Amino acid sequence: MDKEMGVTQAEVGSSTHHSLSVKRESSELEQATPRRGTFGQKLKAHLKRWWWLHLIIGIAVLLLVTLILVYVGFPKISQSGVDNSTLQITSLIISNPTETSFHLNQAAIITSSSAYHPQLDAFNATVGLQGAIPYGTITIPPIHAIANSSTNIDQDVQIGDLDAFMQFNLAFFNEPSVNMAIQGSTGLHEMAFPETTVNYDKTVTLIGLNKLAGFNVTAFSILPTPLHNGTNMLGTVLIPNPSVFTFAMGNVTMALSVAGQSIGTSTLADLTITPGNNSYAMTSITNQTAVLELLSTTYKDGLLPVDIVGQSSVYDGVHLTYFESALASVTQHVVLNVGAALGGLL
């Protein structure tokens, strides 16, 4: 029994020794193998070690975003603001015309819905019919682009392309509206942003004269004795002008005819057409022999259907061909009760 107990104690001692040995090896293994931390602990450790690298990356990204905003975003925003603005011409006065120039006084309102209110530098812009060759260049003054900005142009304009200006006037005299293109480029300034260049490309729709619709001879009388210059008829003409244009044309001469037969000429002296319905004095030199023959044969009722076509426009002794071609393109038809006017002489 003692022997058996001795064996058992030896076995127990051996087992205890083996257990301690396993625990010791397990502890050593745990110490040799590092414990895995959480994601937050790892991130904290990473940032603690590499903070300077992340700072450099952050500064670089911020710089890149700023550069993109300044040199890409801001120019695009600026151009968009200019493109979305509107231009309304409220008055356009052409005076002192010559064959190669005229004086321009133009008032306009620029409307912008942009939250930004930049300053645009003065710049030169070409002007002409939309889609056609520009006829000249104007200088647009500096503009502060607020919600509604007023601008005024007061300058002499050189007609760079006479044919283009003729085409503009032909369209203006004949059409109910014309599209005028104004194009240029200028510098734009906004707060601390660097100056950027924007394109100014606007098309303004202007009311035209529509073949001088509404033109009429509202009164006329035949002189019993012609004046020293041959004038033998006086009258008043109505010329409606629904546009914002005012233009000086000088002495305007018009040819008078009936069924293709010339019966004389009429003159509007020192004519300046202004907006609205305007009456102007007219003097005429008529071929009374031809008129009496027409009344005695074809138009026995005394009502004479007269065609009136612009013939010349002379300002300070100079023919304004760009007005003359426009006047010649429009024919007015009026019926004059010449029989009643002649009866008044009896």
Describe this structure in words.
The protein has six helices and 17 strands. Helix content is 33%, strand content 43%. It is α+β, with helices and mostly antiparallel strands. The strands form two sheets. Strands 1, 2, 7, 10, 11, 12, 13, 14, 15, 16 and 17 form an eleven-stranded mixed β-sheet that branches. Strands 3, 4, 5, 6, 8 and 9 form a six-stranded antiparallel β-sheet that branches. The N and C termini lie far apart (178 Å). Helix 3 (162-174) packs parallel to helix 5. Residues 1-8 have low confidence and may be disordered. The radius of gyration is 45 Å and the shape is rod-shaped. The protein has helices spanning 2-32, 39-84, 162-174, 288-297, 321-328, 338-343, and strands at residues 86-95, 101-111, 119-120, 123-129, 136-140, 143-144, 148-158, 177-189, 196-207, 216-222, 233-241, 245-258, 261-273, 276-286, 303-315, 318-319, 331-337.
Helices and strands, with pairings:
Elements: H1 2-32, H2 39-84, E1 86-95, E2 101-111, E3 119-120, E4 123-129, E5 136-140, E6 143-144, E7 148-158, H3 162-174, E8 177-189, E9 196-207, E10 216-222, E11 233-241, E12 245-258, E13 261-273, E14 276-286, H4 288-297, E15 303-315, E16 318-319, H5 321-328, E17 331-337, H6 338-343
Parallel strand pairs: 1-12
Antiparallel strand pairs: 1-2, 2-7, 3-6, 3-8, 4-5, 4-8, 8-9, 10-11, 11-14, 12-13, 12-15, 13-14, 15-16, 15-17
